[in-house]
Input
Amino acid sequence: GESVGLHLPTLSVQEGDNSIINCAYSNSASDYFIWYKQESGKGPQFIIDIRSNMDKRQGQRVTVLLNKTVKHLSLQIAATQPGDSAVYFCAEASGGSNYKLTFGKGTLLTVNP
Amino acid sequence: GAGVSQSPSNKVTEKGKDVELRCDPISGHTALYWYRQSLGQGLEFLIYFQGNSAPDKSGLPSDRFSAERTGGSVSTLTIQRTQQEDSAVYLCASSLQGTSGETQYFGPGTRLLVL
Output
């Protein structure tokens, strides 16, 4: 079946650096993408989303980039802080099943002070 | 309570026992979702409710799993005759209407351990 996956399972950065977390997806019909942050012992927390008619969307300290040509999604976190340490998941949804999210396995981001 | 709540937060049971997991969605949200997260894995879709109806149950792994929603609010996920492979975190989410591209808000999950 089609799935969403991540290039890097772990990422370690220094506080203040910028972080980039990558995600590859294989379902060309996907038209909605979301990034979630999950801290230990908690449920996923919505960070930012993007629709397939866009290639970039910015939030507070975060930017999501979508490259439909190569089916690639990335999350950029500016000035990474210790509180950003968590597992980050990308998720996708498509067409009529836009309610059904398909998640990748996650990337563990560790921010070193 | 502004967010999605789930109970219990942790559940330990013996193989073969039945368990019930509860989800209280955000007030006013008509759509409710159950997902399962195995250790070190991403989330796996189980079932989707629109109001009290479940138009998509395709993710339920076996007939030992069932879910219901009453009053368009609280939902219960029941696992009968639990097996060790059922051990996971069960997450509930809700969204306002369940329409295209709507943000799903997650609860903290119930950590189920089957011995």
